[in-house]
C-alpha cells in the first residue's frame, strides 16, 4: 500500500469527477499556467488511489504537462459496480481508455503504478488491437511482466480471503496493529474502508494470475519506460531490468525508493518522467 507524503491537494490542483463514456471517476487535475505541452494520465495500484501521485502533480504542471491522477473503478472516491467481471482487467483497461478519451488534448502519456501498470498495459494492448493511438507513451512504475512474486501472492491471497469473513476494518487491524495518528493515518484508513471489497478481491486475483504479456506490449510500438525503486517487494528489481530489455524500454532506478517511488521519492520520479517525455 502506497503511503503518500501528504493528502491535501496543493494549490492549483483541482479535485472533481471526470465524466467519461464509462461513468464518472474521481481525479486530481493539475494544469500548467500556459498551454500544456502534453497530458499525463496516472493510474494507481492495488489498495491505492489518486493520492499516490499527489506529490508529482505540481512538478509535472510546472514543467508544462497537465497531470491527471485517477481513482479507478471501486477505488476510494470513484464509482462502484458489482461482480468480478466489472473489476476484471479488461473492464478496468476499458475504463482507462475512456478516461484518456475524456481528457482530450491529444495522445496522453500513460503512467501505471504496480497493478495500475498491468491495467495500463491492458489499455495499450486493447487500443493497439483496435488500431487506435490514444497514448503517446507508457511508463510502468514498480510493475512487472505478469503476476507478483510468491510472497506478495500469499499476502494478497490472505487479504482477499479475510475480507468476506472478517470485514475490511478487522483486516486493517491485522495488517496495522498500531493505529497511526495524524492526517496521513486517518486518510489511509478512510481510503481502505472506501475501497469496494469486490474490487479488492477481483484485482487481487489479477495480481496473482496475470500472465506475462511483454512480447505483445513490445509489438505495440509505443515508447516505453520502466521505472522502479532500488528495491521492490512485489516484483524483484532484476526481473524489472530484464523486462525493460525485452521491451527495449528506457530504464530508470530511483535511489532510496522501494515499491512506490512516486510517493517515496516524488521529486526524482517527476524529473525522470519529465526527462522521458521531453526527449520524445
In short:
With 280 residues, this protein is α/β, with parallel strands linked by helices. It is built from 11 helices and 8 strands. Helix 4 (150-166) packs antiparallel against helix 7.
Topology (elements, then pairings):
Layout: E1 13-20, E2 23-30, E3 38-43, H1 54-62, E4 65-70, H2 89-103, E5 108-113, H3 115-129, E6 135-141, H4 150-166, H5 168-175, H6 182-194, H7 197-209, H8 214-219, E7 224-229, H9 237-247, E8 250-254, H10 261-264, H11 266-279
Helix pairs in contact: 1-11, 2-3, 4-5, 4-7
Account of the 3D structure:
It is built from eleven helices and eight strands. The longest helix has 17 residues, at 150-166. It starts with 12 loop residues before the first strand and ends with a helix. The model has no long low-confidence stretch (mean pLDDT 95). It has an eight-stranded mixed β-sheet, sandwiched between helices. With 280 residues, it is of the alpha/beta class. It has helices at residues 54-62, 89-103, 115-129, 150-166, 168-175, 182-194, 197-209, 214-219, 237-247, 261-264, 266-279, and strands spanning 13-20, 23-30, 38-43, 65-70, 108-113, 135-141, 224-229, 250-254. α1 packs across α11 (266-279), α2 packs across α3 and α4 (150-166) packs across α5.
Compute the average pLDDT. Answer: 95
Strand content: 15-25%
Order of the strands making up the biggest sheet: 1-2-4-3-5-6-7-8
The 3D shape can be described as globular
Oligomer: single chain
Determine the number of helices (DSSP H or I, runs of at least 4 residues).
11
Distance between the termini: 31 Å
**Count of β-strands:** 8
- What ranges have pLDDT less than 50 throughout 5 or more consecutive residues? none
Percentage of residues in helical conformation = 40-55%
Listing every helix as H and every strand as E from the N terminus to the C terminus, the arrangement reads EEEHEHEHEHHHHHEHEHH
Structural category: alpha/beta
- Radius of gyration, taken over Cα atoms and rounded to an integer in Å: 17 Å
Largest sheet: 8 strands, mixed
